[in-house]
Every structure is written in C-alpha cells, then in structure tokens.
Amino acid sequence: MGDDYFTSWLSPRRINGLGDYFEFNLLPKIEGIYGEEQLKFTDLPYTEPKIDAVFLSHAHMDHIGHIVFLDEEIPIHCGQGTKMFINSLEETSSTKCGKHPYVTFRTGQKIPIVHLEIEPVHVDHSIPACYGFIIHTSKGALVYTGDLRAHGPRNDMTEEFVERARESEPVAMVSEGTRMVEVERRKNHSEAEVEKLSNKIVSGTKKIVFITHYGRDMDRFRTFYNVAKGNGRKLVISPKKAYLLDKLVDDEHLDLPDPMKDDSILVYYKRKKSGCFLEKDYYVWERKFIDKMVNYEFVRKHQSEIVMDLDFYQFAELIDIKPDPASHFIHSMSEPYSEEDITDVVMHNWLDHFQIVFHQLHASGHMNRQQLAELINRIKPKQLFPVHTENPGLFKKVHKNVCCARYGEIYTL
C-alpha cells in the first residue's frame, strides 16, 4: 500500500514519473498503457498503447489519481458528473489528470469497445456520478461493483444496479470490500442520522459550529446546508467549495444550491499577499465569489449565526476567528486509522486549545460486511474477485468460489 512508504509530507516525486511507484510495486509494470514521458526514469520501455479504453467509476482520488500516468492517446470513459469533478479539481489545484480524450456517459447507455459492450449503471456513494459496470463478453457478463452503499439518500440507484447485475447472470464479479472486516470499530450512521444528530448540535447551541467533510461529498454538503438553513444560520464555505458548486449547480440530478444566488451561503476568504482582502490577492477562479466574501472579522462577530466549513488544513484561521469557548466541531469523515495518527493528535490539540467540543458523525460511502454479503448473494456471480479491501479472505465466508487476485497475475473467464 502507498501509505506504507508515503504520507502527505513525503510523496512520490512528480519529476520522477513512475519511478517512485515502480520502486515499491505501487503500480504494475504493464507494457502499452503508460505515457512515454512517465516512463522516462524507469526500466520499462515505452510501447504504443495496447488497450482501447479506460473506464472510471467515479471521481475519488483513489480511482482517478493515477490516470495522469496513462498514455494520453487512450480514451477515458466516465460519467458526465465525474468529468465535471475532474475539471474543477484541475482548475483549483496543482493536481493534473492528463490531456486524455474523454468520452462521457449516463446510466442506460451501452458503450461498444471492440468485442465488448460496457453498460454503466449508477450506484449511491459518497460522491455523485458513481457507477458500477456490467461488461458483456462472449463468455458472459462480468460485473464490477465500483464503490457503493445501501444506506445513503440514493440507495434506489444501488438497488437498480444490483437488480441489473443479477439479471445479467454474471460469470464473474469484481467486488469492492472496503468495510469487509471482522469487527468494525468505526461508528457509521446513515446520511439521515448524520443530519438529525447535526441538527441537534446546531439547534442546541448559540455558539459557532464548525464542520469538516470530504470536499466532493455533495450529500454531506447538502446535509449541512439543510441544517444551517433550517436553524436560520448562514453556511460559510471556501472559495474552492463555491467553485465546485458553481460547476455542478446546473446538473438537474444533483439538486444543489447556487452559491452565487443563495442567501444562505457565504464564502470565506483568507488573508493573502497584501493581507487586506484585495481582489488581486486571489486566483482568477476565486474572484468570481468576491461579492459573497466574508473574512475572519465577520465570522468572529457573527458566531451564533454561522455554520462554517473548516477543514484541518485551514485550522490556522481559528487564531483570527477566536471562537467562543464551548463552540462545536463536527468531524464528518472516517475516523483515523489509529490513535497514534499524527493528524488526529494535532487536530485535537487545536480543538482543546480553543476549548471546542468535538463530535464524530459520519456516513460511510461503502457497504458493511453484512450488506456486502447480501449483495453477493443476490447477484450470484459464479466467481468472485475481491478488490479495494484489506481482507479479501473474508469473502470466502460469503461465496464458495472466491479468487484472491495476486499482483502481476492474469486471470481469464
């Protein structure tokens, strides 16, 4: 796993292309998929592309983060919403995914790729525009679940996928297994429970409430937006979040507020360059929301009227905001992997320093072990390949024909 060798401050060197990844077997050495420039500092020779297409299930970084290494002649197929997220990510950060030809799809389409037919079917996950795939082959259907859950606000989409996958009578299924564990130590709620519990916190205090969640989780954003608005408070967000919303607001499938027009949304600007909040201090993409600008002085004076989105890397703003003692912080993300996690320790040091009350409220983007077992038993694949899991062997307690794939091996139907 990448986190065995790299962490946020120690990252693979961009200048070295695939070199650092190959050193630790973090990406496989496969001819005919990588770009020539990316192979420059490796022992794998460049060859012309040998694959016809790459399909993305959704826009989380563990699914799109490495497409930058692919040969830019290879078409990338993804949902229309996923392409919007990629565009926003590239425009507001240093992350680049490469100049590939993109082909977008929606549920209901079937995409022919040489002798295959790929059928994307939407699923519910912690980011919009997520898909599982039914791959129709001459040997029968191959199902890939993508990342999915059954306890979110659009569990009907997951149900539709499961039914379609079952009807295809798959000869094999590639299943995610993030929460396939012996004992689950993380407390996970449904999205409705997160909203109910968050509302209890906000309605029960006159202090400011800070929140943090995964930036592209639009269900969680909508939850906190509803809580803030329902309690007569303004929701204060970052320019990056406003920019993403502005990109997505016209998608009728998402039902998101317009950050430019919605009176319940304000945009928080940090001090930059001049320290005087001048328009020229900010990136061009940030300037669009200047009319919705608030700063630390506004937040400090209106604490009882605000729910503020504040992620860990913006904690220094607390020094300027000076939140009243016994303010609240809702951490709506997965809990740290261990109690020794340095980020967790530092986060709690900050919260303790400012006497902020901590709350952990999270709805996972993945099915738990029982739900995964039910999914597998309903779809009834003849063979099962676990992926996206640290415990592939546990799938053998659910299905009689499990293949725990090995690094570098080729499997045929």
Describe the structure.
The protein is an alpha/beta fold and 413 residues long. It folds into 2 domains: 2-182 and 366-397, Metallo-beta-lactamase, Chain A; 191-360, Metallo-hydrolase/oxidoreductase (Rossmann fold, 3-Layer(aba) Sandwich), CATH 3.40.50.10710. The chain contains 12 helices and 16 strands. The protein has helices at 19-23, 61-64, 80-92, 155-167, 191-203, 218-230, 239-248, 284-287, 296-301, 317-321, 342-353, 369-379, and strands at residues 54-55, 76-79, 102-105, 111-113, 116-123, 130-137, 140-144, 172-176, 209-213, 234-237, 265-268, 293-294, 306-309, 328-332, 357-360, 384-387. Strands 12-11-10-13-9-14-15 form a 7-stranded parallel beta sheet, with helices on both faces. A 6-stranded mixed beta sheet has the order 4-5-6-7-8-16, with helices on one face. Strands 1-2-3 form a 3-stranded parallel beta sheet. Strand 5 (116-123) and strand 6 (130-137) form a beta hairpin. Helix 5 runs parallel beside helix 6 (218-230). 37% of the residues are buried. Residues 336-340 have low confidence and may be disordered.
List the helices and strands and how they pair.
Layout: H1 19-23, E1 54-55, H2 61-64, E2 76-79, H3 80-92, E3 102-105, E4 111-113, E5 116-123, E6 130-137, E7 140-144, H4 155-167, E8 172-176, H5 191-203, E9 209-213, H6 218-230, E10 234-237, H7 239-248, E11 265-268, H8 284-287, E12 293-294, H9 296-301, E13 306-309, H10 317-321, E14 328-332, H11 342-353, E15 357-360, H12 369-379, E16 384-387
Parallel strand pairs: 1-2, 2-3, 7-8, 8-16, 9-13, 9-14, 10-11, 10-13, 11-12, 14-15
Antiparallel strand pairs: 4-5, 5-6, 6-7
Helix pairs in contact: 3-7, 5-6
